[in-house]
Structure formats: structure tokens, C-alpha cells
Amino acid sequence: MKTTAVRLYGENDLRLESFELPAIKDDEILVKIISDSICMSSYKATIQGSHHKRVPEDIAEKPVIIGHEFCGEIVEVGAKHKDKFKAGEKFGIQPAINYKGSLASPGYSYQYVGGDATYAVIPAEVMEMNCLLDYKGDAFFYASLSEPLSCIIGAFHAQYHTTNGSYVHEMGIKEGGNAAILAGAGPMGLGMIDYAIHCDRKPGLLVVTDIDQARLDRAASIYTVEEAAKNGIRLVYLNTAGDDPVGRLMALTDGKGYDDVFVLAPVPAVIEQGDHILGRDGCLNFFAGPTNPALSATFNFYNVHYASTHVVGTSGGNTDDMIEALDMIAAGRLTPSGMITHVGGLNAVVETTKNLPKIPGGKKLIYTHIELPLTAIDDFAEKGKTDPLFAKLAELCAANNGLWSPEAERYLLANAPRIDA
What we know:
- By secondary structure, the protein is an alpha/beta fold.
- The protein has helices spanning 40-48, 124-128, 140-144, 146-158, 187-198, 213-222, 225-230, 245-251, 268-276, 301-306, 319-330, 349-354, 380-383, 388-398, 406-415; strands spanning 2-10, 13-20, 29-38, 64-65, 70-77, 90-93, 119-122, 132-134, 160-162, 169-171, 178-182, 205-210, 234-239, 258-263, 278-286, 310-313, 340-345, 363-367, 375-376.
- Helix 4 (146-158) crosses helix 5 (187-198), helix 4 (146-158) crosses helix 11 (319-330) and helix 14 runs antiparallel to helix 15.
């Protein structure tokens, strides 16, 4: 079976090329990948090459396929797995397989599996660790977003609070409590808002901050105050670019502070702001992934001692978190379309990945069997003046509050130029 894929050969050395996949073994599965969303982690792996903790040292001779937020269909099942998996079934994948303590992961570490490919071979350890997951939803891109959503779900589950008078910890956010998502109007913040509003364990107050009013306005148009209120949550969008952001944040809690604070920017000032607004027994989750290994910020240890404040950090979700994401998506409880701002084909992956920090907006969604320049959804209408494909996509997105949709996906897959290998 021939595949076309984007492979990493070294630092900033990504190549789109076609090559033969090996025949699957009895304990492997051949899949057709349909969609992959590009993550900042792929950018970090690209610029670091084999210095990245998940990327092997010999990629110059054995290049790896990048992309780890992918979804598709099963094509062929090895004999060992025929009782559980069937050709034609949709799948999602948990790339953090944690096999025998190894950091090896699809999208970073393997020659024959990664999300930016037309076809791939799923190795035995993925199934052994129960990381190839059944997906019942009606759109492939939703399952691609289940990986970043699993990171969000994992963060909510990692929060903890103490039981007064004992050292027993109660896991999860404080139900009915005060929660804040700082620097939260980006793609992961939008997913976090969606989950906070629709999960089983909800805050009473949810404050989302940013210093970009346009981003806040977009977030508020997607996840509305009214929708949150229907789910028992007071949702506030707050621009913290002005004077005394800590004071304004505290005023929303009548001075009590926040039980749960999520920091979504690896910026010392934002981390310290999160510390300053913690209430008694408040838990700060440093969610942002830093690139600076020496990143530091001050933390009030007087409050650690006397007010029981504490900090956790989460990086990625586990298989249970991804199963929860897939189940909530399939049930219609999570609709992460708001995370996506750009759509492209496999031909757009190399330049998009290399330049990801310079491209504004949220998630960049890739469909691996088509050719399409990476295009902002907001630009569809303008491109549609000369290209009927974009004209129809603009129409479909306009009917969905300006967001990508299952209908847009189906139309694109049926009408865009194809990559068949």
C-alpha cells in the first residue's frame, strides 16, 4: 500500500513524499487517515528534531510521520484484532500510549504512523494499550479534536481540593465554585469553555480572560452567556488589558477568590495573576506548554501555608479522557467547531507546521486526501468570488455561525482535488 505523508528528517526538515508502507503483521492495523489538526507540539518537534523527547535520534535515516490529532477509517485488520475491530469503522487515537514507560508516540516517533498521511500502519502497542478508539460521530474533524479535548478533560480531572480537617483530596474542580480561565480565548480556551459548560461537574462562576477584545468577542459569540446560564453557570468574559485586572477579577467573586484557575499562557505575569486570585484551598493548573525550560514565576507561599493554595500542571490527557471526549462529541454534548479557524489539504502541512506560531487564529485543520491551500474560514467568502468551491464552503459555514461543520466537511471531501496515494 502506498501512502503520501509528511515526514521529519531533522530540525526544520519536513518533506511531503510518497512511499510504500510495509504489509501489516497479525498484530497491526492498516488505516485510512481523513483528518488531522495541527498542534503546537508538532511545531516544537519540527524545530527541535531529534532533540525532542519523543523524537528518535535516527530520523535522518528513518524519518517519522508527524501529526497526532487524527481520525479516519480502518482499512485492514490483522488476525489478532479481528474480534474487536472491523474494516470500515471510524477511529480516534490516543497518541500518549505510554507503552512500557516509553515516550514513543504516533506523530513523533514512528516511521509508518502519524496524522499527516493518507494511509498508516497502527503498531501493536497502540491496541495493546487500548489507544485505538471507536468513534461513532458523524464528522471526522470532531474526532481529530478529541485529542486536544482530552488534554482539557485531563486538566479538569487533575484539579483537587482538600477536605477540611483532613488530608484527603477530592479530585476535580469544585462543583458550583468559582473558576477562571486566564488567557482563555484561544483554541484550547474555547474547548475548555465548551467542556466547563457541558460536563457533569460544573462551576457556578466561569470567568474567561484575554487581552484581545476581538478574540473575546468571538468566544462570546460561540459559547454564549445565555447557553452557560441554561447549564447553571454565570459566564463572564473579561478583558484584563486595563488597570487592576486582579481587582476586577476578585470583585466578580465578592473578594472570595477562585477555587480553580487555569493558566493558558506560559507568561510569568499571567501565572502570577492566577496565584493572586486564588481563594482558600484554590488550585492553579498551569496548562500552557512552555518552550523555555527555565520559565519561572513567583508564588505566594504564605498562602500555600495558611490558605492551602496549591498548583498542578497537566500535559496531555489519558485514554479515559479521550473516551470521554469521543462519547460527549458523539452524544452532541461537545461541539468543538469553534476551535478551528483554518482548513487545508495535505499539501499545506509542511509550511503550516513550520510557521504555526506566526499564523493567527485557532486550530489548523488538515484533510489528508485533498489538495487545498491553508485558508482561514473568514476568507472563504472572498476566495469564493473566483472559486466556486470556496463559495459553497462560505455558504455552509455562514449557516453554522461562521464555523466549520459536518456539512462543510462532507462537501469539501466530495469536491476538492484529490490525493489518492
